[in-house]
Write a structure and sequence with these properties.
Number of strands: 9
Largest sheet: 7 strands, mixed
Helix content: 25-40%
Structural class: alpha/beta
CATH class: Alpha Beta
Strand content: 15-25%
Radius of gyration: 15 Å
Order of helices and strands: EEEHEEHEHEEHHEHH
Oligomer: single chain
Number of domains: 1
Number of helices: 7
Shape: globular
Strand order of the largest sheet: 5-4-1-6-8-7-9
CATH superfamily: Spore Coat Polysaccharide Biosynthesis Protein SpsA, Chain A
């Protein structure tokens, strides 16, 4: 079984307060991602800086070095021992377990598995093969700061792309990719039927 890492250590500047502990439908936002991950992966860890409010949501937690999502992902890959790691953003309230299960099921076929939504790949609803992803992330972190994108990491790996027609069969509305970055996103979020 794959492990899972929920990245919840961002500064939440646009939201104006910590997103991970923000109540959405009566549940803290990162808890929604942790619960979805737990349905398809074990263990599930939260990645957040020491002292971050989200650290109280889950144990175990892995220390996010506070240098962006690539560094947080590298910390998770370094700490976990599973061959494959499902990586999720902690601000995605609508993750569909069926889609996550499909990504995990495809994990053995490539160094990464990610969905294409429109023109781009989604790096924070994706599965990474731990060893090659960790090596590629470390190489990117050692290089220029402009090369620290997660999409760039996917480009470095042999990534199996799940195209939109396939993933939409499991998540017709694309709700797994909705992130809540600011108060307008929060106001517009409608949990809909689950």
């Amino acid at each position: 079984m794959a492990a899972a890492a929920v990245l919840a250590g961002g500064a939440s500047r646009r939201m104006g307060r910590d997103k991970a502990t923000l109540a959405v439908g009566g549940v803290e936002l990162a808890s929604l991602a942790l619960a979805a991950a737990a349905r398809v992966a074990h263990p599930v860890v939260l990645v957040a800086p020491e002292g971050h409010p989200a650290r109280r949501l889950a144990a175990p937690a892995i220390a996010d070095p506070g240098l962006g999502p690539l560094a947080a992902l590298a910390a998770a890959l370094d700490a976990l021992t599973a061959e494959h790691v499902l990586v999720l953003a902690g601000d995605h309230p609508g993750l569909r377990v069926e889609l996550l299960a499909r990504l995990v099921a495809l994990a053995g076929e490539a160094e990464a598995v990610a969905c294409r939504r429109g023109p781009r790949l989604e790096p924070l609803v994706a599965v990474y093969e731990r060893a090659p992803a960790l090596a590629a992330a470390r190489a990117r972190l050692a290089g220029p700061a402009g090369g620290r994108s997660l999409t760039g990491l996917l480009a470095d790996l042999g990534t199996l792309v799940v195209e939109e027609p396939e993933w939409r069969r499991l998540d017709p509305d694309g709700r797994s990719f909705v992130d809540l970055d600011d108060p307008a996103d929060l106001a517009a979020w409608d949990p809909g039927p689950r």
